[in-house]
Amino acid sequence: MLVIGAKGFAKEVLEVIRENGDSDNLTFYDDINSHDDNLIFAKFPIITNEEMASDYFKKHDNRFTIGIGNPILRSEMEKKFNKLGGKLSSVISTHTEIGTYEVRIDDGTIVMPNAIISNSVSIGKGSIIYFQTTITHDVSIGRFVEVSPGAVILGRSQVGDFSQIGANATILPDVKVGMNVIVAAGAVVTQNVPDNCMVAGIPAAIKKEISPLNFLHEK
């Protein structure tokens, strides 16, 4: 598998891949930062250009996952590496509790250890579900969403594409969080949140507007 990125979050993804026993031919991609001997942890190779990535997909493994946290960059990387012949793939920790029924986790989603995902949950393409998050029944999470450590998303709630849920934030039942929303760490969201804004506090209130993303409605 090729991991896009070789810094912070990519190192966390590496540990999940290793625990899952899927580290054969594991390689990283970084065309921005320099690394000693083009290795991560003095072991895993780093490739540095698109030609090398295309060659890797042809000769070794066409799967890739995205070790970058920023939702917009994740979307851009998904398009870029699909064109190079890769297939966006999920990385799901074996130390995660996932419901048995009506759970849909789309391609490219990364689920870190000790997350809890209940029944009747859908998680969109390219999302990140971090350590010790709780997602209860009938929750819908959009594409390229980041759910930070300790966040709790309760029954029948919805989170729109490209939104970020901060560490230890709570979204109460039946609440709809729009697209391109930042929920600050520790916030408690008690009512619906419109698109393109940041909310914070208990109860959460809008603190500022965020510039809309022109491509949000693309599928």
Tags for this entry?
single chain, 219 residues, alpha/beta, Rossmann fold, UDP N-Acetylglucosamine Acyltransferase, domain 1, 2 domains, 8-stranded mixed β-sheet, 6-stranded mixed β-sheet, 3 helices
Query: What is the helical fraction, as a range of percent?
Result: 10-25%
The percentage of residues in β strands lies in 25-35%
Overall 3D form: globular
CATH-derived architecture of the largest domain = 3 Solenoid
Number of domains: 2
Strands side by side in the biggest sheet: 7-10-13-16-19-22-24-25
The unreliable regions are none
For the termini, the CA-CA separation is 25 Å
Count every beta strand, where a strand is a DSSP E run of 2 or more residues: 25
- CATH superfamily membership of the largest domain: Hexapeptide repeat proteins
Average pLDDT rating: 94
- Class computed from helices, strands and strand pairing: alpha/beta
**According to CATH, what is the class of the largest domain?**
Mainly Beta
Structure notes:
The chain is built from three helices and 25 strands. The chain is an alpha/beta fold and 219 residues long. It folds into two domains: 2-89, Rossmann fold, CATH 3.40.50; 92-204, Hexapeptide repeat proteins (UDP N-Acetylglucosamine Acyltransferase, domain 1, 3 Solenoid), CATH 2.160.10. The strands form four sheets. The protein has an eight-stranded mixed beta sheet, covered by helices on one side. The protein has a six-stranded mixed beta sheet with strand order 3-4-2-1-5-6, sandwiched between helices. It has a six-stranded parallel beta sheet with strand order 8-11-14-17-20-23, with no helix packed on it. The relative contact order is 0.10.
